[in-house]
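Quick one, tokens below. Sequence please?
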């Protein structure tokens, strides 16, 4: 073996674990409140390696938004694919989101609670925010279209408009959770929204 010191090698890390740590930090601190030093400390990865893997701070933030929404999709996807009346499906979605929004790690929704403040000055963030809003609307609209086809909503019901109402409820749940509103109060809001859409909003 050749004598002398070995050349240093970049520290290895699991990219998925680092992204989760980045996501949780942005979730707690927001974009402006998160420094590159904090990102390095939370992941245990040096800044050069973070840059090489994820890009600059804006790119890390966008990756965190996408990662967080993927968590939401995993939580709600199984619910949507299950059995039961549409009203019960929506209730379970709200309950799952409330559980996430009031978790010990952070409060509210990373996307809803931090992205709007950055969207005006970061075009890529605005695009990601729009994508999430559209996806949430679409998820609820698909549920309501099936409900109308099964007679759980009247023929006159507009799934698109009602879906926007349900999506707006998810946004207010996130903001209220960020403000420290207890989970019980959030559930009362969610229950009222389900009643509005399915019992007062044109149930057949």
């Amino acid at each position: 073996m050749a004598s002398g010191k070995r050349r240093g090698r970049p520290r290895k890390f699991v990219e998925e674990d680092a992204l989760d740590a980045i996501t949780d930090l942005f979730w707690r601190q927001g974009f402006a409140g998160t420094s590159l030093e904090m990102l390095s400390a939370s992941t245990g990865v040096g800044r050069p390696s973070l840059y090489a893997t994820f890009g600059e701070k804006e790119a890390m933030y966008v990756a965190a938004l996408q990662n967080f929404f993927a968590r939401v999709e995993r939580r709600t996807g199984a619910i949507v694919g299950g059995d039961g009346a549409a009203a019960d499906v929506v209730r379970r979605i709200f309950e799952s989101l409330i559980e996430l929004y009031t978790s010990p790690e952070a409060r509210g929704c990373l996307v809803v609670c931090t992205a709007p403040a950055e969207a005006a000055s970061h075009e890529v963030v605005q695009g990601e925010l729009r994508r999430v809003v559209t996806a949430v609307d679409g998820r609820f609209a698909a549920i309501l279209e099936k409900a109308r086809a099964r007679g759980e909503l009247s023929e006159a019901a507009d799934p698109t408009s009602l879906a926007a109402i349900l999506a707006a409820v998810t946004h207010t749940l996130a903001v209220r959770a960020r403000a420290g509103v207890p989970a019980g109060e959030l559930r009362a809001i969610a229950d009222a929204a389900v009643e509005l859409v399915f019992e007062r909003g044109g149930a057949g």
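Confidence is low (pLDDT under 50) at residues 1-11. DSSP finds nine helices and no strands in the chain.
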